[in-house]
Structures are given as structure tokens and as C-alpha cells.
Hints:
Elements: E1 12-16, H1 40-52, E2 57-60, H2 70-73, H3 83-92, E3 98-104, H4 110-124, E4 128-133, H5 140-143, H6 152-171, E5 178-181, E6 186-188, E7 198-199, E8 204-205, E9 221-224, H7 228-237, E10 240-243, H8 248-264, E11 273-283, H9 286-297, H10 306-313, H11 337-350, H12 357-366, E12 372-377, H13 378-390, E13 396-399, H14 406-421, H15 434-437, H16 454-468
Parallel strand pairs: 1-2, 1-13, 2-3, 3-4, 4-9, 9-10, 10-11, 11-12, 11-13
Antiparallel strand pairs: 5-6, 7-8
Amino acid sequence: MPSPSHSPRQLHFGIFLFSIGYHPGAWRLAGVDPKASHDPAFIASIARKAEDAKFDFFFLGDALATSAEQQYVFPSQTVRLEPFTMLGYVAAHTQRIGLIATANTTYADPYHIARQTASLDHLSGGRLAWNVVTGADERAAKNFSRDHHWDNSRRYDCAEELVDVVSQLWDSWEDDALVGDQQAGLLVDPTKLHAIEHEGRFFQVKGPLNVARPPQGQIPLVNAGTSPRSRAFGAAHSTVVFAGVPTFEAAQGFYKEIKAGAVASGRTADDVSVLPGLVPYIGRTSEEAYALYQRLSALIAAKLDTAALERDLRVPLAGLSGEDAFPAFDEADPAFALARLFITQARKLNRTDTPTVRHVFEYAIARGRGHFLAIGSAEEVADTIQHWFENGAADGFNICPPHLPAGLDDFVELVLPILRARGLFREEYAGSTFGAHFGRSDRPANRFEGVRTADAEFGRITETHHRVV
């Protein structure tokens, strides 16, 4: 590959924790602990490896429903710890790496989220970001005393109001409101503590918060851009937008949309970083990498479901077995766009011009949330990363190792040295907060600074009374 240009831009990397591996067959691989999702020592070890490698963040997603059947489709999401609790533990075992906690706005109260996020930002020394999700799993409604899951529009109406309320609560304490003046007998300066008096469609919140303003002032937001509303939200508000894009072309389109949306919202394109998910299958040779994918695919526990595959891809599969060649279809027809993607990937991943029905089914399961599968030698994977980074498709990547811990080790030990040699990734952290990792050095001003409140007047009367007595 040609020598890289010496651009001031550098890649951002995060580790997206799937404790038993992103690939659905990985939990059955020798050396993988099927119960790793509940092993605190394992979780801390992954976070420390990522920190030692100077990753920007350690990220834990979340879900509010599960079932035994899910183990066949996405086993790594079947069972896992609550994210704020886990990240509190991780914060105590790390010093510099950013921490992203997921909180679902559809089934939450803004005061709870404001307390949790502010508390964890304090405990981590300003390393927290909040992944804002509205939930895509309709089963969650039944776990929260609801008859149905709200539609996308209502979920995002609620999310936007909730985020606004949380943001106000973070500001309800000015930076120096917690005085702690032992001589004067003044713990809190009442002129710098603010009720927010929010009255909205979904929430009525008086405030103030009972946690002092977070170290970062305003905790950075993160979200995954899937629906138009989520992409618009990310462009307008998020520091990082995740993307599940299976191809370079799709990534370019997504990147362009988010950057343009940021500018249209009054921000700059650099205010938001776009990080697609990347599932790296790495070998010391290309052959090793493809063998790894095929070995993991052979461990998939899900039974071949040709009916579901036919329904999704619109290609007739009745009467075919897994070992039959996947039938031909018009790959130029837009109606078969998903089938074209699947057959293209099945050809590539299995290194054959005539993939079988099982090959296509294995890719359908292995793609999970639709993240890009980068496969090859360390040099080839590094080339792919650089190509996306330098050609308007990514500012970095949310790394989803197909198996753990070795999948992360391969990326850190084999790929990162190549990217560092090309000047594309940091040697050392430049800051110690999540915002600093993404170039946010200025602490946001407090919207309530200088605003006189009823609490302040009460404090003045109380203080006068104290002096008189």
C-alpha cells in the first residue's frame, strides 16, 4: 500500500464488549469462557488491555429483554451484567480509558439517569459517556408494565425531552456550588444551586440534582444511527455516532449524512466522530484469517432455517439442503439488494464462487447487527482501516472481536503496530477524560450560572437569621 499521508487526523478505537465473542459460534471455541459475561476478573482484564493499547473507550451495550432462543441467534446478548454497575467496577480498575454506559430512555426516568451518569463521571474522574438508546426490542415493554413498545417517533420525542432534562440536571449545580466552608458553616452556596422546574410532555422534574455537577460539566453523548430520527439526533447532539454498516459504500453514505447533519445543526463536521462497528478476523496470513472465520462458523449452534432465510432474502429455497448451492437470482435487481450482499459476503468469506445455502445462512448469523467483517492478514486489515479512514467512511472504529480474549490480542499485537508506524494511531493518551480523547478540551459553560433562584433567596434569609441568633 502507498505510504500514508502525514495528516493530523488520527484514528479513534473503542472496544465493544461481547464477553463471549461477537461471532455466535465463538463461545464454543477452545479458550473461550462461556460464562465470561459474569466474571469480574475477565471484564477488568479486557478493559486494561484496551487501556494499555490506548483505546479511546470501553463500551458496554445493553438490552432489557432476553429468551433462551436468543442463544442461537446472538448468544453474547443473551445474558450480561447491568452496564452502570459493571462500569463502576471497571472504573476502579482503569485510569485513562473512556467508559460508555448505555441507558434506554424509553424505560427510564431522567432523574435516575442524571444521578447515575453524574455519579459515575465523578467516580471515574470524568471518563464517562452516555450511549442514548430508545430500544428496538418490543419484548421490553412487557418487562416494564406496558402493553406495547412505543413507535420510533414517540420514542425519540421522549428521548429528546429526557436528554434535555438530564442535561439541565447536570447543570443544576454550578461548578463551585459545593463550598464546604467549615469556618463559615456553609456546605452549599444557595446562590449556585438551581431548580430546573421542567414541565414537559413526558416529564415533570423540579430539581436540583443531589449530585454535584459532573467533572466534564456536560457528559458526552453517544448513539447508534439507525433510523432517520436516531441519525438526526446523533448529528445534532452526539460526540460519537456508531454505525452498523456492512460495506465501504454504505459507510461512506452514512458518514456523509452525519457530517452534513452536524453542520446543519450549527455544529462543525469535526464535532461528531463516526465510528462503524468492525469485526476483525485476523491471521498472520490471509489463509489463517479465513480459516478462523470458517472454524467459528462450524461452531454455530443454530439450526439451518431456510424458511427465515427465504423470507429475508426473497430467494426461493424450498427443498434445498444446507449443502446445496445457493440458487442464482438477478443480482442487478434492487429487490434482491440484501440477497446480493449476503451472497457476495458468502463468496468472499468462504473463498468460493459457488457458496452453499449453509454458507449464506452462516453469514446471516455471523453479521449480527450488520457490522463490517474485516478479514485477512494484519497488514490487510490495517489497509482496510486506513482506506475507510482516509476516504470519508470512518473516523475510527468500534472494535467487536469475534472471539475473546485472543481476538482482541490479535488486533492489539498485530494490527495496531502497523497503524502506529503509519502515524494513524496514538502512542499515548493526550488527555484523561472521555471528551479529551475526542478533542473536547473546553468545559461547557453552565446555563444557570448567574441566575438568581428562590433557593438563593431562602439561603440569604437563613444566613441572616443565623447571624442574628
